[in-house]
Amino acid sequence: MELISIIMPAYNCSRFIGKSIDSVLAQTYTAWELLIVDDCSTDNTAEVVAAYKDERIHYTHNNQNMGAALSRNKALREAKGRYIAFLDADDIWAPEKLEKQIAFMLQNNYAFTYTAFHRIDKPLRISGPKRISKRMMYAFCWPACPTVMYDQEKIGLIQISDLRKNNDYAMWLHAVQKADCYLLDEDLFGYNKHQGSVSDANPFTLLKWHYILWRQEMHYSKMGALYYTFLNGVAGLYKKIRYRSKIA
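RE: above sequence
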């Protein structure tokens, strides 16, 4: 079995991280390592993680607050698996998530994939295009971070700049340079929306973060960054119409 490295940045998430770890322990695919990077939490996140004695769980604590982007960079440098997956410390995978996704990749020789998911706080299912090319990924960040898995042998080590927002999108923009991203259209992840999340921000703030992404990470000119920011906004509206559906 190929080893899957699961990347989990954590910050003040003691209320939720236990359930997220439980969802990893419940996976039907057992060849994994969970790399938890605690970004200087001030709550009892460390104590919650310490209660888990599984040797596949690796916990490290940053010396200073670095943010999710640099915390993920750190975990990616330490990852030993061929396959890379991501799980936020307040989200939950279905038990068969890893097994189904790696089988989907191996059967189709895909290097970069994502899945559908649902909102835990309301009856919504979110999917996306069956195949995301480089052009499509530049138009919008279609994959939710905890739905993504990629083959590190084909994609390579991804390291991004210190982006406080949109850092997952930055990773996909680098990954899609090497391979298109394919959808496993099964609901294998539950997303918890909390106050203060990116999706809570007003539209102008969201556009500002997109602009910073295109300028800082992708090094586009001001006009180029404005163009892709506008494109991201339009595609975001399209996704809400086309790829969101209520769960009965």
